[in-house]
């Protein structure tokens, strides 16, 4: 479960490494995010921008203190699937997205939860190497 001020790893190549949750974009009485929920984040740690990178890839890079949207793809908190199995990951991770729900990066470096297939994040699932 992702609450306010939770730190998450970013698993795409958008330029961010660590982000902090500042808002859970969810309707209802619960104020936490789980796998598949959108959150608003601020970039706490970013990769340095190379001088030789130009064009569209440089425009899509995020910098420290940027405010972005993200979708949660892994959580440390265990959650139950409809078949009865319980899934728990080693870290909290997210993928940065734009207002339309398209990912900012062009690659995803590690696994994501299988529950994203059923939601509207088809492009995120297509970029991931594997889903658990």
UniProtKB/TrEMBL annotation:
UniProt keyword Ribosomal protein, yes or no: yes
SMART domains (UniProt xref): Ribosomal_L14 (SM01374)
Organism: Hyphopichia burtonii NRRL Y-1933
InterPro entries: Ribosomal_uL14, Ribosomal_uL14_bac-type, Ribosomal_uL14_CS, Ribosomal_uL14_sf
Stored Gene3D superfamilies: Ribosomal protein L14
HAMAP family, per the entry: Ribosomal_uL14
A GO cellular component entry from the record: mitochondrial large ribosomal subunit
Pfam families assigned: Ribosomal_L14 (PF00238)
GO biological process: translation
Protein name: Large ribosomal subunit protein uL14m
Keywords: Ribonucleoprotein, Ribosomal protein
General function of this protein: Component of the mitochondrial ribosome (mitoribosome), a dedicated translation machinery responsible for the synthesis of mitochondrial genome-encoded proteins, including at least some of the essential transmembrane subunits of the mitochondrial respiratory chain. The mitoribosomes are attached to the mitochondrial inner membrane and translation products are cotranslationally integrated into the membrane.
Family: Belongs to the universal ribosomal protein uL14 family.
Gene Ontology molecular function: large ribosomal subunit rRNA binding; structural constituent of ribosome
């Amino acid at each position: 479960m992702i609450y306010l001020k939770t730190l998450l790893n970013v698993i795409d190549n958008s330029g961010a490494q660590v982000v902090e949750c500042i808002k859970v974009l969810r309707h209802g009485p619960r104020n936490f995010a789980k796998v598949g929920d959108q959150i608003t984040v601020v970039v706490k740690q970013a990769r340095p921008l190379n001088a030789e990178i130009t064009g569209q890839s440089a425009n899509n890079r995020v910098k420290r203190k940027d405010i972005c949207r993200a979708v949660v793809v892994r959580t440390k908190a265990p959650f139950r699937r409809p078949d009865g199995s319980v899934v728990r990951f080693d870290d909290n991770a997210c993928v940065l997205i734009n207002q339309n729900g398209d990912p900012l990066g062009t690659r995803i470096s590690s696994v994501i939860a299988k529950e994203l297939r059923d939601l509207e994040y088809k492009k995120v699932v297509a970029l991931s190497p594997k889903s658990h």
